[in-house]
Design a protein that fits this description.
Layout lengths: L1 E3 L2 E3 L6 E2 L1 H23 L25 H11 L3 E5 L2 H15 L4 E3 L2 H9 L16 E4 L3 E3 L4 E5 L13 E7 L3 E2 L2 H12 L7 E4 L4 E2 L7 E2 L6 E7 L6
Length: 239
């Protein structure tokens, strides 16, 4: 056995630490635990006893402003392009107009219900996931539209993340019944819809991709779509 100050090392067995070293460690540990116990017993007076944790921290929208207008206003302020549609037929008509005006060629759509609308209107689209890198436009639905922030809540249930990021243009097809005021309302929709089977991906999108890292100059489409459209179909007043 070799002696080292404050430490014994057994050559034939695992290292054996001197009892004094364990006592020092225990003493330091006990000092910390003692302070913790004292803090729990003798609680200090709260510096901010009357702090309000319940009130809404967001600026309130103008009085009596409809929730759809609140979303449209905040969404367009974030450089999104908002298109209201009276019904599904109006949606197809306005989508065809946009495609013709923008000369879109390579549209991708992976959702069956939206694909059906496109097929009925004669709009050509691609649904091959492997060719998403070639897509000019990605068309998706959404889980909710959040009026307070002008944001879109997407999930992985029907679409992967690639279709909302890879194409230079992202078109979201939504319905007026999907518009909620707060983020917590959108999460409640997810909880009610999926229960314990929460989608593996939830993504909040607020306007097209943008950055101002270089000389504080705003650049759109830096890390994702340069254009973001929301076609909002009224499903409350028309059947």
């Amino acid at each position: 056995m070799v002696f080292v100050p404050n430490l014994y090392i057994c050559l034939n067995n695992l290292p054996c630490y001197q009892v004094a070293l364990d006592q020092n460690t225990t003493t330091a540990k006990e000092k910390i635990l003692k302070k913790v116990r004292q803090a729990l017993i003798f609680k200090s007076k709260a510096m901010y006893a009357n702090i309000d944790l319940e009130s809404n921290i967001y600026t309130q929208p103008p009085a009596h402003e409809p929730i759809l207008e609140t979303f449209a206003r905040n969404f367009t302020q974030a450089h999104g392009q908002f298109i209201y549609c009276d019904n599904k037929f109006d949606f197809i008509d306005k989508l065809l107009t946009l495609i013709d005006r923008k000369k879109y060629k390579n549209l991708h759509c992976w959702e069956a219900d939206i694909q059906q609308h496109l097929k009925e209107s004669g709009i050509t689209f691609n649904y091959d996931v492997a060719q998403i890198e070639k897509a000019q436009v990605g068309i998706t639905g959404c889980e909710s539209l959040i009026a307070r922030m002008g944001s879109i809540l997407l999930s992985s249930t029907k679409n992967g993340r690639a279709i909302s990021i890879s194409p230079s243009t992202h078109i979201v097809v939504a319905y007026t019944t999907q518009v909620v005021m707060e983020m917590k309302d959108a999460m409640q929709v997810i909880k009610n819809k999926y229960g314990r089977n929460t989608p593996t991906m939830l993504s909040y999108v607020t306007g097209p991709s943008r950055t101002a890292d270089i000389e504080r100059t705003l650049v759109l489409g830096a890390h994702g779509p340069k254009e973001l459209f929301v076609f909002l179909i009224d499903d409350q007043h028309h059947h």
